[in-house]
Amino acid sequence: MKEVLIEVKDLSVQYTSEGKEIKAVNNISFQVNKGETLGIVGETGAGKTTTALAIMRLIQTPPGKIRNGSVQFDGKDLLQEKESVLRKVRGNKISMIFQDPMTSLNPVYTVGDQIAEVIWLHEKVSKTEARKKAGSILELVGIPAERGSEYPHEFSGGMKQRVGIAIALACNPQLLIADEPTTALDVTIQAQVLRLMTNLKEKLNTSMILITHDLGVVSEVCDKVAIMYAGEIVEYGTLEEIFRNPSHPYTQGLFNSIPNMNKKVRRLTPIVGLMPDPTEIPSGCSFHPRCPKAMKECKSMKPGNIQLNGEHKVSCHLFDETVVRGRVETNEPSTP
Amino acid sequence: MSTNTQVSNELPLPAAKPRIKKKNPYIDIWYRLLKNKLAVVSLGVLVLLVLTALLADVIAPYPANEQNLTNILQAPNALHWLGTDAYGRDILSRIIYGSRISLQVGFVAVTFSVTLGGIIGAIAGFYGGSTDNILMRFMDILLAIPGILLAIAIVNVLGPGLVNVMIAVGIASLPTYARIVRASVLSIRDQEFVEASRAIGESNFSIIRRNVLPNCLAPIIVQATLGVAWAILSAAGLSFIGLGLQPPTPEWGAMLSEGRQYIYEAYWVTTFPGIAIALVVLALNIFGDGLRDAMDPRLKQ
């Protein structure tokens, strides 16, 4: 069994907006082992980014608030620690790659200085040494060190994201959180950046949480996959388990909506409807209004986490034997 | 377990020894400023002014307060290039000495208000909420009174004199800086790179200092150069109405005031100090604009 690096338990985050409570993340739990990559997949607004920010406790308060839960990392609960302790963790042990490289770099400092900043913050080195190390890290992500004395606006988008990766890896973190690192890049650059990230991750034995809505990216990079819907993890398992045997109707819907090269179809099959308004999450299973296999129970009862096989977990009544058997006994045709 | 987490494999850094040259951003700014002809000219005027102020004792043809009652209200001539005033004092010399006072008032007052106003604005903008409300409502109170009137009131309370004029002018322009800094901070605060710097473990203070303030430097600098101009004007105005520097101090505003009785007979007594004020204020304004263009790396070609 591999060593657990970070364990998130019952994490709930909510935002308050105009007096309404928005439940962005509801009681999610997962863990990441050393050297592994967890992919968090979901639609826009599923709570992926909020989860990532909550792990580093970067949620803006107000309006955001971490309701409950714990994040065990390195023997500490990050959600209970003091701000000063967290500052030593951020960028050093857990670091983050942001979605948009255009805006995540400070326009008034050279990129070399920005990389050196992290090193200087967390390691006891002189500024000259930090700058020297920053140059080496730039080379590592494939940018000539001389370009370290240039400003972010002098770089292309893909190169800026490399700089973002360089900043994230500068202190050799144990966990890398990549929040849709390739969304803002075009496809060829996406591949380059992904390859770079996986290579470096393997070299440095870093664990990674990759947040994305691109299942293709997940299949290339991840070891474990968590599918998020409306702030909950609806299905969790290894890459194999999820891709060979997608069980939750939502996951199946996601896979069905990907165009298939071998079949010529006029239309893709999308999941009907939209993500629910986070202020009014439906009762019972939050997916039931869109679910093609919804049953009576789905409306009233929240499905628990059902263990399938291996690490594969799904939160759906279809797999809950008591529900399914109950239907059979009352002679009601179940509609899976 | 704990020993295990300590084992960190070092980054496999490339063998070559690449270096990042520490590039001084101000050198860049300087070169970009040099491309702006008008800014260079106004910078020249300002440098000249500073030199004049520093070397006043050497270059002034006469002592500032030397009266020569046989030579009163002389038109500009070879001995007195800009003429003499009602006491026979050489106007050129008085303008030269007066530049010291104008510069002092301008720079000290602006430094005072930029520092204090900047701190107030940065705190208000960054922390928001009730901190913001209390600080900015206090600034609004100051802003409700016209600047020059506020300065007059403060000088009235403190009494005339160089230091009091600086304090008065500084306090009167405080809300302008506080508001500018706050507005810039608000627009910078929610940018992703601020979040990113929080994600690398920077403290609030360091984020304000390293990320927020440098990004709102451009409007502050422009406002500060304009502010020097305003401070010089205000100080001259205060002296003109008799609340600032007292005679016989050679102050440009006071000189205007003294000369206004003779404006029909001796235009030079008011004209030349007036031109001095106008020139300096104009040069500061143009230079401030040029500096703004040069300092914004996004405008870089």
TrEMBL record, chain A:
GO function terms (MF aspect): ATP binding
Stored InterPro entries: AAA+_ATPase (IPR003593), ABC_Ni/Peptide_Import (IPR050388), ABC_transporter-like_ATP-bd (IPR003439), ABC_transporter-like_CS (IPR017871), Oligopep_ABC_C (IPR013563), P-loop_NTPase (IPR027417)
UniProtKB keywords: ATP-binding, Cell inner membrane, Cell membrane, Membrane, Nucleotide-binding, Translocase, Transport
Keyword Translocase: yes
Major localisation: membrane
Topology versus the membrane: Peripheral membrane protein
UniProt subcellular location: Cell membrane
Residue ranges occupied by any ABC transporter domain in the UniProt entry: 6-255
Family of this protein: Belongs to the ABC transporter superfamily.
Protein's name in the database: Peptide/nickel transport system ATP-binding protein
Automatic annotation (TrEMBL), chain B:
Pfam families per the UniProt record, alphabetical: BPD_transp_1 (PF00528), OppC_N (PF12911)
PROSITE patterns: ABC_TM1 (PS50928)
Keywords in alphabetical order: Cell membrane, Membrane, Transmembrane, Transmembrane helix, Transport
Stretches of the chain forming a coiled coil according to its record: none
CDD domains: TM_PBP2
Main subcellular localisation: membrane
Record localization: Cell membrane
InterPro entries: BP-dependent_transpt_permease, MetI-like, MetI-like_sf, OppC_N
Chloroplast as UniProt keyword: no
Alphabetical list of Gene3D superfamilies matching this protein: MetI-like
Family: Belongs to the binding-protein-dependent transport system permease family.
Protein name, per record: Peptide/nickel transport system permease protein
